[in-house]
Each structure stands twice: as C-alpha cells, then as structure tokens.
Amino acid sequence: MIFHYLEDRVANCTSNPTKKQDSYHALLYRAIISFLYTSGLRNSELRNLTLHDINLDNLSGAVIGKGNKYATITFSENARNHLIAYLKYRRQIFPNISFHYVFTPYSKEPNRMFTLQGLNTEVKAIVKSAGVKTKGNIHAFRHSLGTHLVQNGYNLAQIRDKLRHSSITVTNFYLSCNPDEQINMTKDIDTKILT
Description:
By secondary structure, this protein is mainly alpha-helical. The chain has a single domain (2-193), classed as hpI Integrase, Chain A. It has helices at 2-14, 20-39, 43-48, 77-93, 116-129, 138-151, 156-163, 168-171, 179-193; strands at 54-55, 60-64, 70-74. A 3-stranded antiparallel sheet has the order 1-2-3. A hairpin with a 4-residue loop joins strand 1 and strand 2.
C-alpha cells in the first residue's frame, strides 16, 4: 500500500518540474522506505549512512550498528533503483553541493543529516499519507521485514543475521547465514513482497 501511494506521488510530482521540493520529497520517501524495508536498518544507521558506506553494484553496505559494531547490510535492486533516482535528482537541484550522507532533508543546508526526530516525523507522515492505519515508525519496517521473512519460509538464524540481532534471546539460534544467502533473501523480498 505504501509503495503504490509513493509511486503515484512520485509520478504526480515529477511531472510538474516547478515543484522541486515536492519531487525531491517524493523521490526521497520512496528511496527511504524501500531501503528501510529491504535492508532492515535502524534509525541511527539510516541517518548516519554515507555515500562511501554503500556499494550499489553488489547491493550491500557497511554500517556501525548497535553497540558500535561494524555490520554488513544488503538491500534490494528496487531499493537501489529508487536510491539512484533520488540521488540523481538531488544532484540536479543541488549541483554545487558535495554530499556526504545518503539521505538528507530538503533544506537551506542540504548536506546535513536528518535528526532522530526529523526522520521519524518524515516516516510517520509517509505512512499516514498512504492511509496505513498501524503505527508508522522506522522500527516498524524492521518488524515487518522480519515477519514477512518468516512468512516466506526463512529460518530464525537467517532472519537474525539479516536484522543483525546480537542476542540469542531474540532469535533463539546460534547459527549464521552466509552473505550469499542474505543477498538471495534480499532478492526474494524485492520480488515477492515489494512488487
């Protein structure tokens, strides 16, 4: 539901070039939501994600996660495509800015990172505008991803690795998932859930 809403919003906004801020937000929202959902990032991880942290070719990235631990993430092809569209448009409307962060608010200082509350507010607005009745915060996307992975037959060890849980009380397993399985999981999310 959220993705269909965002697709319509992007189509409406990008067809009217006089609305740069609306187009920027539409592309940003689509990129954020698809990236959140397929990568399982936490709020702080998404806000701190830099252009140097991601590899668009192999659909992966590096983050400093909970407990200041380095972690590898994967994301989907659709998330990559939405991210590329957003980054390309951002470069067009802010040609003289050297960007550091992947996701930045539309503002007089376009290279600053989102604040904790600012990003949560944006995500809540996206979810509410799309007509979704449930609580719409960033962490809800991690829960949705985990739930949908269980529904699609992935075991708890694979899900623990995808969501980067450190406690066995969360996942109940000691097993780990290799990177190839994580990439295949992300592809499944992309094709079975997001389309």
